[in-house]
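ESCALATION

Customer reports they have been waiting on this structure for their group meeting. Please prioritize. Original submission:
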Amino acid sequence: MTPALIYIHGFLSSPLSTKAQQLGEFVAAKYPSIEYIVPGLANNPGEACRQVDQLVQDCLQRGFKPLGLVGSSLGGFLATVMAERYDLSAVLINPAVAPHNLAEHFIGTHHNPYTAVDFSLTQADIDALRDMAVEPQARRYWLMVQEADEVLDYRQAVNLYRGSKMTVEAKGDHSFQGFDRHLAAVVNFLQLA
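Update from on-call: job pushed to the front of the queue and completed.
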């Protein structure tokens, strides 16, 4: 059996994000037997969820086992949806816990700096996020948050994932400074090596 690791990037991000690249380089150097997958996701959250769902199904059908997830920000929300749907473990980095409650920040026109794509989100996109929300099972998650996250209130994640393994660091930011310090532990938590 071949283990696989899916990294799910956040809103206004891409497979070129620093954390995705750091994790990919680490896995390639230390664990070349792990299939590392970082999909480029649609900017629309409903479509992004469908893409991740199809990718997880494909990995399971191809026999990748174990299959672990790492999600950052909105990717952490999507990783939670998939972990609950397919009984998987996930590492969540400064995850969005209820992105539909941030509608005022999402509705409107956006520019993805990684892909140079301009796009708009509507109330229907926010409703899609609300419909995706699940109640996480504590045993399957490692929550990684930094208290000085300038985008999301880390305390909401600490509350939602209570009972999970947690790393709560002072200071930092939404990008989770120093993520590269935890790469080996991420692979170990997901039982991929």
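Sent to customer with the following note: The chain has seven helices and eight strands.
Escalation resolved.
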